[in-house]
Amino acid sequence: MLLKAENLQKQFDNTEVLKSISLEVNEGEVVAIIGPSGSGKSTLLRCLTQLEKIDQGRIEVCGKLMVDTYGGTGYADHKLLHEIVLEVGLVFQNFNLFPHYSVLRNIVDAQVKVLGINKQDAEEKAMSLLGKMNLSDRAKAYPCELSGGQQQRVAIARALALNPRILFFDEPTSALDPELTGEILKVIRSLAEERMTMVIVTHEMAFARDVADRVVFMDGGVIVEEGTPEEVFGNTVNQRTKDFLQRFNQS
Fold first, then answer.
1. What are the pLDDT digits (tens) for 187-205?
2. Tens digit of pLDDT for each residue in 60-96?
3. DSSP-derived 3-state class of residue 177
4. Separation CA 71–CA 28 (nearest Å)
5. Cβ–Cβ under 8 Å, residues 60 and 22
6. Inter-axis angle of helices 148-161 and 103-110, to 10 degrees?
7. What totals of helices (H) and strands (E) does the chain contain, helices first?
């Protein structure tokens, strides 16, 4: 098991965003998290990747204890938290590329500064990943010269360059035009075929059904239901899930 989160609680001001969320992810598994806007999906990802701190709960990543408020220890020390950060990758919905860096440098600098890899090796790996993303000819381009779909593929390559054991996606196609969505879903599907461990927050229901090993439906800060795509999309007995999926099932 690469990820184990227990009874996570998170509050912003007086609004409880996560209400005792528990989630496990096994190695090689693809977990899709679906649900309406405001259900806590992105907040959950931010807590799992240390971009937000939980108020209560326990998170273990790749056998390393990130936080345990119940044991009285709270968050781990800086050294261990940094080690945990290196185990995970996060692809944002808005790419988060450095606009003043070329495509190649966006991928190389992350390796040199975070992993301490020499520049030549980092460039070789970057070019290999760009080839995988069908972007070898765009290595010297800048983000502003790329389409949204190309920028997102660069962001995925940058995340993969750091050798994460778990890759998180926060609605990776939400900032893209519909015609560009397919190319990103194709990349993620290929990673799934390679058994990359992934947790994907997505509003693409057909993609979640076709690619995920397990689907988690969130609403109101809780996990309402989880199961195989067949169980959640085809045989759910939960009325809230049925209501949410009704439009998708009719399409």
1. 999 999 999 999 999 999 9
2. 999 999 999 987 789 999 999 999 999 999 998 888 8
3. coil
4. 29
5. no
6. 20
7. 9, 11
